[in-house]
Amino acid sequence: MNASYTPHPDAAGVLADCEQRALEREGIPMFLALEDLTGGLPAVRDERALAEGPELARLTGHYQELLRPEAGDDDLKSLASVITVLARAHFDEEGRA
Amino acid sequence: MTGHGFEQHKAALHEGRYLRVVNYHNTPYSMEGQLREELAAYAASFACVTLEDLDHFYATGQWPLDRPGFIPVFYEGYLNNATVAAPICDELGIVAWFPVITRFIDCPVPDQRAFAQAHHIDLVEEELGMDRLAMAWDDVAAIAERHVVIPHTGSHEEIAKVLSAEDVEREIVKPRRDVEHVTGREAAAFVWLYGTPYGTSPAQDAAVRDAGYRYQISNTMIQRIGRGTPTPS
Question: Which residues of chain A are within 8 Å of residue B5 when distances are taken between CB atoms?
């Protein structure tokens, strides 16, 4: 299984669109990271996630460079902005595939 | 790798440790048609993730699902989540998660608007004239029969203001007890106002963990913070 996603050609426009949304009444898609602080999560074996995940990571880096190049690594507000763009543009890639 | 930043998030994505969620707040009747259409589209592409599915992923590294997983999340405990969102989810066979502000639900009906205004609970214009704005505990119990209900603090308090033992009891401990009492099910996860992640405030982190929560949900992550003993359902 392979995934190959194309970056949105107007990421700044997508971000502007996201920032205009009415958070109190609209559904906001996100990609949440799954962390395990108990040290027990085995390596992921899910073929679909392993195929798609690297593409999503690559796109996150792309949008980070494009939209928030000055943000520090731990700038959670910027991270959330980048993830909302990622989700807005690529949430249903799997569904379309 | 653990942490909260860009690199950690990209590492999680790269390693296949991620999940789709859609965060909702108000779901008034005026949005009913749009919401049904939106959720139906998600349901056609994705499989809903239950607490058991999430536990399974953390135990095995695999999703027990035939499609990519997703969670529709309805925040705050609005009455319109019970009267509009939950019935649509039931109609479509969707399992959703409902983080509820427990003191909003406790609040007497005549005081709910003032409570909302004082606790960062956004209201929509078309509902400002309504008497009841929050779910009742009976609504919570009914929703929990088919969905996942978890506390979103007692009064929508931000983490930096939960300092004393009384604060911890009111915002973290009692909400879990109340949800479990009413639903008869484990309240396994906790969400702070503003989606603050675990790992930023040691005292409050310990309080959440000691209260028995196994997961903390933030703006960018779901963190397993303890293994606990699930409450029998």
Answer: 72-76, 79
